[in-house]
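Lab notebook, bench 4. Still working through the backlog of constructs that have no structural model yet. Next entry is a single chain of 298 residues. Request: give me the structure tokens for it.
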Amino acid sequence: MGITLGIDVGGSATKTVGFSASGDLIGCLQVKAADQITSLYGAVGHSLRQWKMNLADVTKIFLTGVGASFITEDIYGIPTEKVSEFRAIGHGGLYLAGMKEAYVVSMGTGTAFVRASGDDMVHIGGSGVGGGTLLGLSAKILGKEDIEAILALAEDGCTENIDLLVREILNYEIPTLPSNFTAANFGNIKSTASDKDFASGIINMIFQTIGIMAAFATRNDTIKDVILTGTLTTLPQAQDIFPAIGDMYGIRFIMPEQAIYATAIGAALASGNPPLPRAFPAPHNIPPAPAREWPRSS
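Model written out:
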């Protein structure tokens, strides 16, 4: 059947996408395992089982992600090629958002920033702040390592019980600095702060750090669009925090559908084979937010 697999072997999970020879998307799958090699081989087998395909149907595999560095052989004897993670991030983000140029931010265990324009993908830097930060701090502060438990706590949390706000340190207005913005994350922890507040504060700090870094990256550039990809895009708090940062700095944040699979998709796209997949609709924000792009401030 001429199936092509794009696989992103990340620090904590492996994402797999499959395309037909004509470029149609067959499916997407994410698996987790104790180590990256087990995760990779398990992802291939589980994907084919779910899609009711056989190994003989797969003609090419394209690997990317930090775990790809551990692979020196063809997977299951299938011709396997490695793709630069940063090229995969850029190509995947641009395609999913239906754009020709933008900054693409991959929010995984850590965070990578790529300036993507046409076929020119430039890795401009990264941050150790990401999903790994969320899990590590939550385990230490909250005693929670399960993401669903962390999100359940954060749902009713109040960051004002954790963070120091601009209005608390200034008695005058700064036009470019809203009074309700954070002056210091975890800078004003109240004695009444609960685990819910701490969970909310951790997520807020991570997203604010990533958002501000993205804003700084675009500051002296004509590109003012930022495409957010990666597992952290599934957190509901992203729907509120990033638009606020975008309004402040005059940039537009976009979270396309299937954003967690952007790098795996980009691995296949960067290879030039198969053709561009035709299965994705016009970009829109993931639920629960209504379908929209976050506008630039005037």
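Notes after review: Residues 195-218 form the longest helix (24 residues). Residues 277-298 have pLDDT under 50 and may be disordered. Flag for follow-up if needed.
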